[in-house]
Specification:
single chain; mainly alpha; 352 residues
Length: 352
């Protein structure tokens, strides 16, 4: 009995231990499963949070890039260095000569500017006055695409467009001392402007869409403008330009467009009372003077080769009919009167 009882007790004890162990296993497994679920859930939460953070970071990057682009597109409030800061060295002397050529173009370069007009008659104060076809910062914007030419042009080409059209003269040799000096001056008044940037006051303000009346313009011109420009628009050399006739700007000049001329007149004329005319009076005067005879622009029919000429261009181009052309165009010697469009580089036979 004792043996049996002892064996039975041992078996019972073993059975109790087994039962106890089996009872604990499910509990441990449940804890483990819960822990795994919690870990997975936490991982999902962290993944979601990470995704949201990444999206927020991407949005922030895009916003920063957009803000940076907007800031880059905003014109700079730029003031060029003063001519008095120049050293008395070769570069300083070249820049000073360039300013002299811009200011006294007719007297300094009669072979290339034979009319009665200087660069500074449009680019006031040597190109420094804001909104008066200002030249500040101009060197930073070249080379550039010019839609009128339909090609990318150099700064030297743009200078020569002024000579052949706005001055109704001849182009300056690109490698000449005169061109070097003019470009040196334009580069000096662009010093510090990032490449491709625009500055406040460049060009001229855009005008509202109005139509000038030549009869009213004649009356305003007679009462307000003849004191300086003369009854025949001939001007008073060397300082006051001709506004029509053989000594004035050619039909291919920007000033021959009614809206562009109206902007200049509205904001800067008459010289002793700038801004005293209304928008409509400015358009009236522009229509009157631009309808008078002026020099021809050889090759003007090739302007805007891809179309898209502004509505007030006074001569026919591709897809554009002449807008109120001048009464008569004065013939010009065509030698040097145009700026050749850039040509493609010659490819050697078999070159790749």
């Amino acid at each position: 009995m004792h043996g049996i009882s002892e064996g039975t007790a041992m078996a019972g004890s073993k059975a109790r231990r087994t039962t106890a162990t089996e009872g604990r296993l499910p509990a441990f497994g449940g804890v483990l499963a819960l822990a795994m679920i919690a870990a997975l859930a936490g991982g999902c939460d962290r993944g979601a949070q990470g995704g949201e953070a990444a999206k927020a970071g991407a949005d922030s990057t895009r916003a920063s890039a957009s803000a940076a682009q907007k800031q880059a597109d905003e014109p700079l409030d730029y003031t060029p260095p003063g001519i008095q800061t120049l050293k008395d060295d070769e570069l300083g002397r070249s820049i000073r000569r360039g300013l002299a050529l811009v200011t006294h173009t007719k007297d300094s370069l009669p072979e290339y500017a034979p009319g009665n007009i200087n660069c500074s008659n449009c680019h006031l104060d040597g190109g420094l006055r804001r909104d008066a076809a200002a030249l500040i910062g101009v060197a930073a914007r070249f080379p550039k695409y010019m839609d009128r030419t339909g090609a990318v042009i150099r700064l030297e080409d743009r200078v020569n467009y002024c000579f052949t059209r706005s001055l109704a003269g001849r182009r300056i040799p690109v490698g000449s001392t005169e061109m070097r000096d003019i470009v040196a001056y334009l580069t000096f008044i662009s010093r510090g402007v990032p490449v491709g940037s625009h500055v406040r006051g460049e060009g001229m303000p855009k005008m509202p869409a109005l139509t000038g009346d030549t009869a009213r313009g004649r009356a305003v011109f007679a009462s307000t403008c003849t004191m300086c420009h003369g009854a025949q628009g001939q001007g008073m050399p060397p300082g006051i330009p001709a506004v029509w006739g053989a000594g004035s700007y050619a039909v291919g000049a920007s000033m021959a467009r009614e809206e562009r001329a109206a902007s200049f007149i509205r904001h800067f004329m008459p010289y002793n009372q700038p801004g005293s005319l209304t928008d409509q009076q400015a358009f009236d005067v522009a229509a009157y003077i631009n309808g008078m005879p002026r020099p021809e622009s050889p090759g003007k029919e090739n302007d805007w080769p891809h179309g898209g000429a502004p509505a007030d261009v006074p001569y026919a181009t591709r897809g554009h009919a002449a807008h109120r052309p001048p009464a008569r165009l004065t013939p010009r010697d065509t030698a040097g009167a145009t700026v050749p469009a850039p040509a493609p580089a010659t490819r050697r036979t078999g070159a790749r």
